[in-house]
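Worked problem 6 (solution included).
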Amino acid sequence: MIYRLVWQTTMVAHFLVIAYIALGGFLAWWRPRLIWPHLALCAWGLVQLAGLVECPLTALENWGRARAGERGLLPGGFIDTYIEGAVYPEAYVWHVRLAVVAVVLVSWAGLVIGIRRRRGRPARTTGTSAAPEQRASR
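Solution. The predicted structure is:
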């Protein structure tokens, strides 16, 4: 039972990581500090696409599945098992990858534009236009 919980929790974490890679740049519009983990995960995603290392979440999920007596993920890992063919047809793999890259780049461009606008904007006030000493003399 615990091994089933391990692989299912890992599967959910994997979905969240992939969603954050695709959409995390938009969260950074709200909280600019969120761009740093987003950049790190995007870099990790590129390493994964290049096939340089195995994803530790895939390894953990396969470990939990094996201990629970379940079949492991397909050789392509998480995306091949849960997303390709289920969310979009396998024939559109590169189209979807390019669309995700475009979404990420748009989110980064929006972040840069937002930061530049904030820097050019005057500081917020309390809603009154008079300085405290001017209000006291009224």
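Discussion: The CA atoms of residues 14 and 57 lie 7 Å apart.
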